[in-house]
Design a protein that fits this description.
Elements (H helix, E strand, L loop, with lengths): L2 H14 L35 H5 L26 E9 L5 E11 L2 E11 L5 E3 L5 E5 L2 E14 L2 E14 L2 E14 L7 E10 L3 E3 L2 E3 L4 E11 L2 E10 L5 E11 L12 E9 L3 H9 E9 L2 E9 L5 E2 L2 E7 L25 E4 L14 E7 L13
Antiparallel strand pairs: 1-2, 1-19, 2-3, 3-6, 4-5, 6-7, 7-8, 8-9, 9-12, 10-11, 12-13, 13-14, 14-15, 15-16, 16-17, 17-18, 17-19, 20-21
Amino acid sequence: MNKKLVRRSLLAAALLLPSGRARCGGFFPKDPFTDSARGTVAAQFLKVPPSARWAALGSAGLALSGPDAFFLNPAGLAAGAGSAFSASYEALPADSSRTGLLFSGSTGAGVFSAGLLYNNSGAGLEKLDGAGNGAGIDLTAYDAAFGAGWARSAGLTDFGFSLKYIRSRLAEVSGNSFALDGGVIFRAGPGDTTDLTLAFRNFGPPLKLGSEAAPLPFEAAGGLKWKYSPILDILVEGRLPVDHASYLILAGEWFIPFQASPGGGTRRPGFFFRSGLNFRNYGDHGLMGAYAGGFGFRAGGLSFDYAFSPLWRTGLRAPADGGLGLGRSKGRIQGRGRPAGQRTAGGGGFFARRRSCRGGSRRGAGPCGDRTGEDREIPPGGARPGFRP
């Protein structure tokens, strides 16, 4: 028997089917939010958002903004202005792969978004006969999720929701479900340096594949983003998945501009270096099983991100994605005198940066130092209360 073929078949089954303990029709498995529920949920591909940025941060990023927030925390879309597009690709073991496509566009009623995540597990799979011999018939095995979302800002609070349709298939057996994601981000006000966030993902009815029905991988989460310096953000997040005990994620994102912007403007191309520790599997795989890292750069409206993280015993994950921003910020940027409609730039979108211009430096920033660790886009209608360009 072809051992490589058997490994691929087992991988596809593990990705698409829950364990036998998951025969239930409820939204949550037996013994939810504990390690006893491991292996009892379906659609496990939804656990990992399609973003190299999040992967490099150890899956942290609840309080960050950008189109790739669609599958992690829809509230992160609320800061968008104009339109933004992001595409990601990740090669997985046994010739499997994941592809993500994300789009967001701002209107007077908020920011609308759409996302697609496709997990191909069928490459190289072949149907076996009763003796374990190849029958020369290729198997189809995949997971897919696509949906739409809406987000909006209200003062210093961003909130958003998304609804997605989920489909899984293994050979002739397929199943469907849908799930709701939502979140809120409390942005730092004048003089503050910490954003707080709460979110939930994958809340919906169980997915039935053949005779097996299993809950979706629901997760509740909360965390903070501490703007330690103008070029360094520190993220601390707690996760409560329905099929695992709660755990922490610690991460940091460091921005290095190519050069100072003329006149201290907001066009700040540069490099990002990212690292994170995700303690979900620390007890099973140790420190190196928890570590992730990566880098990225942005120039104008273009961005590119790359990540590497352990895939437990099978090697490294190495997702990559790129983004493109197409749009114009609306209204005037307060205190800068910039004409309405002038472009501002950031990774995967058009951004204006939060600034501290009170005559004194803060942790190494100049009198008007850019807080580049997190870009904030000007919402439709101009700068909102508490947003200091």
